[in-house]
UniProtKB/TrEMBL annotation:
Pfam families the UniProt entry points to: MFS_1
Entry protein name: MFS transporter
Statement: the UniProt record of this protein carries the keyword Magnesium: no
Keywords per UniProt: Membrane, Transmembrane, Transmembrane helix, Transport
Coiled coil: none
Source organism per UniProt: Kocuria coralli
Subcellular location: Cell membrane
Transmembrane annotation, as ranges: 21-41, 47-64, 85-106, 118-140, 152-170, 176-201, 222-238, 244-263
SUPFAM superfamilies: MFS general substrate transporter
Keyword Zinc-finger: no
GO terms for cellular component: plasma membrane
Major site of localization recorded for this protein: membrane
Length: 273
């Protein structure tokens, strides 16, 4: 064990970036408070306005701290990269749909409108999951070799939007249609969308900033999921409301527009600071 520890010992790295604990705490608090406030819209009276004010103050403090910090959580050069910024906004919008919301509302669709038991509801997710897996694993990589990631992701977002409208318009008198038609269309769209967009927002950065670019993308995705569920749940009449699927389709149309206006990635030739 001592020999192994000696062999694994490395010389100290003096140029390693440090993570500011205070900045990370501020950003986390801002995200948490914002999500909580949005999920409580219209339900807490004056208390809600107070929480909203606190969330706004904390968010402003986080932005001010990160704009002046010597070692910000996200290198400032990434914020100056329009491809990364616009692409992450598209990631955030798509995360509002795919990260949590779609599974939440599909669960209520299958259990409340179709009357499926929990076990059958889980099995009913398989067509969507398998379609996404097949498209993302075997189809999308071949398409990326021939077409631009932006074009593929745009088509994927549009196809997803079409699929998301299906649960809102299909009659529950035909359960198999309600299960399989949206699953196939949404699965194809999602399989075409996510990988090309991930490539757009992580291409062209230096190796030193690769981790930050990836973290930025995943934060946009996860925060989008939390915000999306909070807004959709608060803004619809009920969890099985058809309007939720219409709103999710609208969000994917917005994501399609954002992907279309995302600039092509440019190789970075300067240090990411």
């Amino acid at each position: 064990m001592l020999i192994g520890a000696r062999g694994l010992r490395r010389p100290p790295q003096t140029d390693r970036a440090r993570i500011g604990a205070f900045g990370a705490l501020l950003v986390t608090a801002a995200f948490t408070l914002t999500t909580y406030v949005l999920s409580s819209i219209g339900s807490r009276g004056q208390t809600w306005w107070l929480l909203a004010l606190v969330a706004l103050i904390v968010a402003a403090a986080a932005i001010l701290h990160q704009s002046t910090a010597a070692e910000p959580l996200i290198p400032r050069s990434l914020w100056r990269n329009r491809t990364i910024v616009v692409g992450n906004v598209a990631t955030f919008v798509a995360g509002m749909v795919f990260q949590v919301s779609i599974w939440y509302f599909l669960t209520y669709l299958l259990q409340h409108r179709l009357g499926l038991a929990p076990a059958l509801t889980g099995l009913a997710f398989l067509p969507l999951t398998l379609t996404m897996l097949v498209i993302n694993t075997w189809v999308t990589p071949h398409l990326i070799e021939r077409y631009s990631p932006r074009k593929i992701a745009t088509i994927g977002a549009l196809v997803s939007a079409v699929g998301l409208t299906a649960p809102a318009v299909l009659s529950t008198a035909y359960p198999l249609l309600v299960i399989f038609v949206p699953a196939l269309i949404i699965g194809i769209g999602a399989g075409l969308f996510h990988t090309p967009l991930a490539g757009l927002v992580t291409t062209g950065v230096t190796p030193a900033a690769a981790g930050a670019a990836s973290g930025m993308m995943n934060t946009a995705k996860q925060f989008g999921g939390a915000i999306g569920l909070a807004l959709l749940a608060a803004g619809t009449a009920g969890p099985s409301d058809r309007s939720a699927f219409v709103l999710m389709a609208g969000l994917m149309l917005i994501a399609a527009v954002l992907v279309m206006v995302t600039p092509s990635p440019q190789p970075s030739r300067t240090p990411e600071r």
